[in-house]
Description:
By secondary structure, this protein is of the alpha/beta class.
Amino acid sequence: MGAPVVAPFDLNDFTVIKEGEAEILMHVKNEVFYNKTQVNNRDMSIAVLRTFISRRKEEHEAMLSRKKKTGPKDSGEPIVEPEALTDNVMHDEKSNGECEVSQEISRDEPGSISEDLAAKQEGKGKGELKPPRVLEALSASGLRAIRYAREVDGIGQVVALDNDKVSVESCRRNIKFNGSVACSKVESNLADARVYMLTHPKEFDVVDLDPYGSPSVFLDSAVQSVVDGGILMCTATDMAVLCGGNGEIWVLSVERKILPRDGIEDPSCVSASAMKNTPLKLSYVYQCTGCDSFHLQPIGRTVSKNTSVRYLPGFGPVVAQECIDCGKKYNMGGPIWSAPIHDLEWVTSILADVKSMKDRYPAFGRISAVLTTISEELPDVPLFLSLHNLCATLKCTSPSAVIFRSAVINAGYRISGSHVNPLGLKTDAPMHVIWDIMRCWVKNHPVKAQPPDQAGSVILAKEPDLQANFARAVASLSKAQAKKVARFLPNPERYWGPKVRAGRQITSKHVSLLGAEAINGMHNHDQNEEEPPSLLGAAEAINGMHNHDESEEEPSSKRKKTEESTSNL
């Protein structure tokens, strides 16, 4: 490929930033967007990409082995087994000011890359699997693309796009600065990502979306550009911008973009079962306006008879007009994705790979914590409860997470944490059981009388049908918790979080993002013509540390802390 053509420049005008095995040159001005916080995203993408390449190679070799045993068909074509369209969503992290939602969608059997793709490439290359081509659709400085080229073994060409001339110049400069490996693998182009992906259909094994803002507007074109059996990686620095704080809505959006893709060219390319299965993965949500209890209404259902399966609309409604717990009305929302959003086999494989080469991940602590938490949460429970919100409804002190989990387990139900929120709890216990447990808790920890029309008063006025057992259960702590493995880490620096968009003038209105010290430093730089201080990030971390899991009971004064005041659960 050769080194890119780069205009002469003076190294004294730049600061060298090192991340992983890559080094980039950043101008002292805010010309090209760079956010140190996103090292978490880039590390996670590299970990997923390594696993994808490894799985892809293993399945290609398995396909060749099966072909040798079974032999080709009369037509001379390799034998390819039928494939189903499913979704493998790898991770979604929400942590203080740096929410990460990164979802990888594989168009194949769960945990499988594409045997069909391997067969096609085997036919062209006489059994040789070509290195995967990667598209980084919104590259800015090119840091991610360069890290892919330098750190991921077995990777092929990496195409880095941006529609900003200054960013493309920066990317090309950084490619050259990183030497022969980057120059031979990374190509930087000035292009609109949506147009480029639409005009390069099914050309890339990996398409990576990490824009400044929501990736939603790029989905239609991105799914056109990724090959069958490829992987689509999407990152959003703020989940609320992406889907209102609910990852399940985002997964539904991806599903809707992927399913019609091949149907545009040939409707027979999408299997009927894949289309029929989609309603089974979706649900409407009813949430009480008084006590926040929620209930899912599946859109579809199946009826099996002998070997046949019928797909029918879901039964409903699942709730009455008024909440059975507090008597208030319901809000209705959705549909959301109510099927599992993680492929636990993939998550386990990625986590093992990350641990085996921890020195190669600058954000090892954070990404291993996220993957560990995901690996331990209930995969078939889409939404989570907040223990503090339950207590706020009843105006009571909060039991420790261990005590509450024990009561749920002793009642015969499952419970786990949530990777989205340190205080979140996923359980298959119905809401009336949850409120019975809280009624029993309040009997032992009385509360002040509240107005009788309040939701909490109505709930507590009823006698519990279940007598909760708060004796500590063996499974009340996960394996990671029992071993005191960190699962939610505090921010490593002050002002760790979002950054100001590239090219935007930094003024006093950005104090909430950059901090007063950084703003004052910028003003002093304007007056003294000295180098400005480094901008460390956004809002200061609000991780209030209290070992909630290990404590037997939380004082009422601590109950008033917000959910953002989290602990190392």
